[in-house]
Write a structure and sequence with these properties.
Elements: E1 13-15, E2 20-25, H1 36-44, E3 48-51, H2 61-64, H3 69-84, E4 89-95, H4 97-106, E5 113-117, H5 124-127, E6 137-139, E7 157-159, H6 160-174, E8 184-188, H7 198-206, E9 212-216, H8 230-250
Helix pairs in contact: 1-8, 3-4, 4-6
Length: about 250
């Protein structure tokens, strides 16, 4: 991390629990605040939960400008290795770019399972800046959340360079999806206004996992971890973990 001050409420969190670890990764321009609710639910269920703050996030947009997508991959790899010290099984849950990073991790590490929430393979608005040299910063609108009572910590604008790194990350994952073979639960919002829902179907069709499921989030927009379906996500994830992780441990 940089020497910049972390925005109040945006820091990483670690909640110790049993020997099954839940690594939760926030999205581009998000922070662990956006996944704190579901993280606390997993902790209450007894799991060890870790939500790292990705480099360049949760401080100021200028910090994000110096990031490369490999930094974010390293962040999630470091978090995975931290959990490995005390956990025998690790399930990785990712929101948006966090889902992209979770699948990228699963391509090289022995994850026990992956849960994606509107994982990003494409962001049409950002694609228009793929080869641009300006502006330096791109204004961000209000976070795409259906629930008007929900609040997400984000920057009001993001660096062009960081957007272009996200595009490279998504491009890189597309070439590796077929290497993902662990159990995967793919959650997507039909009314996502940031990442098209067909990205989740592409993930489902491209991964090699024999144990893979899709679930719609009909009452949520893009930031599903803060939206109306957040409890549905927790319930489905707990069921997924019970069937594909804990039963395998017991057998």
């Amino acid at each position: 991390m940089s020497n910049s001050t972390i925005i109040s409420g945006a820091d990483s969190f670690f909640i110790p629990g049993n020997h099954t670890g839940i690594l939760i990764c926030h999205g581009f321009n998000g922070t662990p605040q956006s996944i704190a609710y579901i993280g606390e639910c997993f902790a209450k269920a007894g799991f060890t939960v870790y939500a790292p703050l990705l480099k360049g996030h949760g401080t100021c947009a200028e910090d994000m400008e110096t990031c490369y997508y490999q930094d974010w991959i390293q962040n999630i790899e470091d978090a995975y290795n931290t959990l490995k010290k005390t956990c025998s099984n690790i399930v990785v849950i990712g929101q948006s770019m966090g889902g992209t990073l979770a699948l990228t991790l699963a391509e090289k590490e022995a994850c026990s399972g992956i849960v994606t929430l509107n994982a990003a393979l494409e962001v049409p608005w950002y694609e228009t800046f793929k080869h641009a040299d300006s502006p330096r910063f791109i204004a961000e609108g209000k976070p795409d959340i259906h629930d008007p009572a929900a609040y997400e910590i984000t920057y009001p604008s993001v660096p062009l360079k960081a957007v272009q790194q996200l595009l490279l990350l998504m491009q890189d994952l597309r070439q590796k999806l077929h290497h993902v073979s662990c159990p995967v639960l793919i959650c997507s919002s039909p009314d996502d206004h940031v990442v098209p829902a067909y990205c989740s179907m592409e993930i489902f069709q491209s991964i090699s996992s024999s144990e893979k499921e899709c679930m719609d989030l009909p009452s949520s927009y893009h930031v599903a971890s803060l939206d109306y379906d957040k409890d549905k996500i927790v319930e489905a994830s707990l069921s997924f973990i019970e069937r594909y992780v804990l039963k395998k441990m017991a057998s």
